[in-house]
Amino acid sequence: MIVDGGPDLEQLVADELAEARRRLDSGVPAARLYEEFERGAREHGEDWRRVALPDPGSRPSRGGPPRTALPVHEFCDLGNFGCALIEPVLHTVLDSYGDELRLVWWDVSDLQQREVARLARAAAGVGPRFWELHDLVLANQRRDDFTRPPPEIPSPAVLRRYARQIGADLGVFDYVMATGSGAEVEQLKQARALGVKPPSLVIDGEVHSGFEPPRLLRAAIDRALARRSPPAR
């Protein structure tokens, strides 16, 4: 069964933004919002939903060595405001582990939405420059003061400018934007069929919301790393 974000996800993001604004209005500094959201969060991980992931194949990934690093699977799409919001904290957490972790991108874009499909096609069109496009697009959607709505999804002209800016092959980019590569469609179908809603992280089979506080994400990563370590003799 294919599951997308839909109204439930939109309501979740709206509720999170409303709560963030309420705390800002009450005097909480923006830099402490995540710390504030940690209060009352779940302490234990025994009730996490679990999912068995297929081999990620050629999905974009970055970080530690592919053969040895623990994969952290990010289920998102470039048009999702929630995915833009979690990026700074996600990077801070993952970077603190150095080469022990590798981030794997699972695009769950809804190709029935024309603007979202455009972004998925652009991501395929830049090839090995994916992460540079990823960072540009999400950075331009994020508003750290939580008081402005996300901007519109970039137009074809803006996406082409991004592709030129990051040094992508514009001939390939233009071709994929016009025709699609085919490969991204199959990968999207496979990812969406898992029913993991964005923004989510899958860590050693555990499904975590990207909005979870850093200490819970670290706890999940530490558990997974401990399970990979050989027992002491």
Question: Explain this structure to me?
Answer:
This protein has a single domain (6-228), classed as Glutaredoxin (3-Layer(aba) Sandwich), CATH 3.40.30.10. Helix content is 48%, strand content 11%. The chain contains nine helices and five strands. Helix 3 (81-95) links the parallel strand 2 (70-76) and strand 3 (101-107). The chain is globular and about 45 Å long.
Number of helices: 9
- Neighbour order of strands in the largest sheet: 1-3-2-4-5
Low-confidence stretches: 1-7
% residues in beta strands: 5-15%
Q: Main beta sheet, described? A: 5 strands, mixed
CATH class assignment: Alpha Beta
The value of Rg in angstroms is: 18 Å
Roughly how much helix do the residues carry, as a percent range? 40-55%
Query: Which structural class do you get from the secondary structure elements?
Result: alpha+beta
Q: What is the total number of structural domains? A: 1
Overall morphology: globular
Provide the succession of SSEs. Answer: HHEEHEHHHHHEEH
CATH level-four homologous superfamily name: Glutaredoxin
Q: What is the CATH topology assignment?
A: Glutaredoxin
End-to-end span in angstroms? 46 Å
CATH architecture: 3-Layer(aba) Sandwich
DSSP summary, beta strand count: 5
Mean pLDDT: 84
List key phrases describing it.
233 residues, alpha+beta, Glutaredoxin, 5-stranded mixed beta sheet, 9 helices, 11% strand, disordered N terminus
